[in-house]
Amino acid sequence: MLWTLRPPRPWSLPCRPPHRSFSFTLNRRLSRAVAENVSKPPSFREQLAKAKQLPSFTDAVRKVPVRNQILFVVAGTAGALALGAHLTNYELVKWWTYIISMPQDAGIHRERPPTSEELIRARYFAFGRQLQSSLATLKTSMEQLPDTLKIMAVWSYVQVFQPILNASEGKRMCWVIGALNCAVWVAWRVPRWNALMMRSFTHNPLSGKSYTLLTSIFSHENFFHLLFNCMALASFGSAASQQLTIQQKKVEEQRGVLSEPTPKWHVLAFFVSAGLFAGLVSHVAYARWLYPKRIASLKSSGTPANALRSGSPAATAAREGQHSLGSSGAIYATFAITALGFPDAEITFIIPPWFPINIWTGFCTLLSIDLLGVIRGWKIFDHYAHLGGAAFGAFWYAYGAKIWYELRSWDLPVVFYLHGNKLKRALDPPSS
After folding, report:
1. What is the pLDDT, as a whole number, of residue 2?
2. How far apart are the first and last CA of the chain?
3. Whose CB among 51, 219, 317, 410 lies 3.0–4.6 Å from 325's, allowing a Cys bridge?
């Protein structure tokens, strides 16, 4: 280990670093620059002046929209009526072709179009033959079963389908609407769908949604609500269908024959349009009167701006809005047409009094109850929707047949262009 014997070098660095003072003297130029860049904190008055003013209670509450709902109802009504007119004209072309192809026609309807009665008769017999064919198929499939079961099955088939065959086209459409209402009611019974049904099948003006004005027409959460509406629809809907046919014939006498093979599409378009209009009346009434009235009552009570967050009944009602559903508005429209078209008819309510009364008297009584409910602010029923449906029914009774006739006249060339090839070939005279 020779390297340990070397003497220490005199020029080697010491083990400890030299002592240094940690004191720091601020440069005068640096202190001046720092002092110029540091902003002076604002005073309390300056901060108070810059503070943003909080909105008042009335300004903090948002307004309920109505523009999109009005546009949706206008577009939905126009679409429903246009589609109904198109489907009716399509049925005309289809059954006109069917009648010409029948051997017993003998070219009669090549010279003139069939009347509405001839088209309805052809549809009736064609539907009857279809039911008879289904019954024959059912009997063939039950050949191996005992005779008792065969008789019971045939009897059940006749009991179900004979009333359907005898019913008018308008009443069948009312049954279809009632079946759709029942299907939506069954969906309400599924617990995991309750949130979806409440969100998409009830109309709440505070939600800002527009499509629920349509879906809520076919929605019933309560069984008795569904039962009463379906019974009223089956009764007044059938009578309204007959009145629409009568009004259509009066317009044909004035403007020319435009045969209608079935009134079911007219009934469906009228039902949807009336339901949309009734829902819109209820929406506008809530947005422009009921909701501002509730907000004004909260403001007058001296509550602070966050009163909507409290748990009071008024605050809860103003915060959550109202959920409306059901086809009562559309049924009121059918009731109005029936009362105006058959003023001497008698009806019997399913609620007291049970004795027969004049339909016009009953209709005016229900309207009076709804008007009283609007004035007194009753919340059991949607009185605004009832009055809106009745107003739409009265309007359609006065002008609906003319509007329907014009829509079908405008759409007829389109239907012949799209679906009239078979009819054109059938109308061509046979080559000799």
Report:
1. 36
2. 136
3. 219
Read off the tokens for 6.
């070397």
- Cis amide linkage into residue 353, ω under 30° from 0: yes
In tens, the pLDDT along 384-418 reads 999 999 999 999 999 999 999 999 999 999 998 88
Q: What is the pLDDT of residues 55-105, one digit of tens each?
A: 554 555 567 889 999 999 999 999 999 999 999 999 999 988 888 887 666
CA dihedral 79, 84, 85, 87 (to 10 degrees): 120
User: Are the CB atoms for 344 and 334 separated by under 8 Å?
Assistant: no
Those residues whose C-beta lies under 8 Å from the C-beta of residue 90, and which sit 6 or more positions away, are 415, 419
289-307 pLDDT, tens digit per residue, is 888 887 777 777 655 555 5
Dihedrals φ, ψ of 346, to 5°?
-120, 145
Cα 267 from Cα 242, distance rounded (Å):
10
Tracing tokens 């209820």 back to the chain, one arrives at: 282
Nearest-angstrom CA–CA distance, 423 and 227: 44
* CB atoms near residue 37 (< 10 Å): 6
DSSP label of 357 = E
Nearest-5° Cα angle at 275, 274 to 279: 115
Report the alpha-carbon distance of residue 191 to residue 129 in Å, rounded. Answer: 43
Contact 185, 136 (CB under 8 A): no
Between CA 416 and CA 304 the distance in angstroms is: 66
Please indicate whether residue 32 or residue 412 has the higher confidence score (pLDDT). 412
Residue type, 350: I
Half-sphere exposure of residue 220: CA atoms within 13 angstroms, side-chain side: 23
Q: Which amino acid appears at position 45 of this protein?
A: R
Alpha-carbon gap, residue 212 to 190, rounded angstroms:
20
Sign of the CA dihedral running 285, 188, 390, 395: positive
Residue 347: enclosing H or E segment and its boundaries?
strand 346-347
Joined together, the tokens standing for residue 299 give 């403001």
pLDDT greater than 50 at residue 432: no
Q: What is the mean pLDDT of residues 172-191?
A: 95
Q: Burial code of 133-146, b = ≥16 C-beta within 10 A, e = fewer?
A: eeeeeeeeeeeeee
Residue with tokens 């009997």: 139
